[in-house]
């Protein structure tokens, strides 16, 4: 079975607006929390608390834009709240999916997607991959593989205190020049 889910961005606007307005109803969200369309996960890291709330609903007959998306069976919202020192930042993302109502599976898929996005962010910040102008596809792929190896090594490297990966890379390169 092929799993399909799409992140709904503000384009197409009608679909985004429809789903956003649907999930703005607090009574509806309370109802989903009481059923099997809700999952919450909390994680503490780097002196902040991250709360991920997953909502999924398979009642989509009301959607006007539904006919444009073949195989759609459910819609969902992920509400990510990051709290640190009295400040809270909340980000909401909306999804359409060919998955039946199984919020645990949707949560796992979304978390896997965000972990890939995090890796790409690290590759860009630490190794400046987005500014690479290599034209040869094979060379660019090889550089990407080497950067991923180096990223995994940097994450294992312990310099005695927590520091950004970019700074770890610099420290390692400076020590390597001594030999």
Please characterize this protein's 3D structure:
- This protein is of the alpha+beta class and 179 residues long.
- Helices cover 43% and strands 25% of the residues.
- The chain contains five helices and five strands.
- It has helices at residues 13-23, 26-34, 103-127, 137-156, 165-176; strands at residues 5-8, 38-45, 48-57, 74-84, 87-97.
- A five-stranded antiparallel sheet has the order 1-5-4-3-2, with helices on both faces.
- Helix 3 crosses helix 5.
- The longest helix is centred in the middle third of the chain and has 25 residues, at 103-127.
- The mean pLDDT is 78.
Give a concise summary.
By secondary structure, this protein is an alpha+beta fold. Helices cover 43% and strands 25% of the residues.
Which helices and strands, and how do they pair?
Elements: E1 5-8, H1 13-23, H2 26-34, E2 38-45, E3 48-57, E4 74-84, E5 87-97, H3 103-127, H4 137-156, H5 165-176
Antiparallel strand pairs: 1-5, 2-3, 3-4, 4-5
């Amino acid at each position: 079975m092929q799993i399909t889910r799409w992140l709904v961005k503000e384009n197409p606007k009608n679909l985004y607006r429809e789903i956003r307005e649907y999930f703005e109803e607090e009574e509806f969200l309370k109802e989903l929390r009481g059923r099997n369309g809700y999952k919450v996960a909390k994680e503490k890291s780097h002196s902040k608390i991250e709360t991920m709330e997953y909502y999924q609903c398979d009642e989509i007959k009301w959607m006007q834009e539904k006919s444009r998306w073949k195989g759609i069976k459910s819609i969902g919202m992920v509400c990510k709240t990051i709290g640190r020192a009295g400040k809270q930042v909340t980000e909401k993302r909306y999804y359409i999916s060919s998955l039946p109502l199984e919020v645990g599976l949707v949560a796992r898929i979304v978390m896997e997607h965000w972990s890939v996005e995090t890796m790409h962010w690290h590759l860009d910040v630490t190794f400046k991959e987005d500014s690479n102008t290599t034209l040869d596809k094979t060379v660019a792929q090889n550089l990407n593989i080497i950067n991923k190896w180096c990223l995994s090594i940097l994450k294992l490297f312990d310099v005695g205190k927590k520091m950004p990966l970019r700074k770890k890379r610099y420290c390692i390169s400076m020590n390597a020049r001594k030999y």
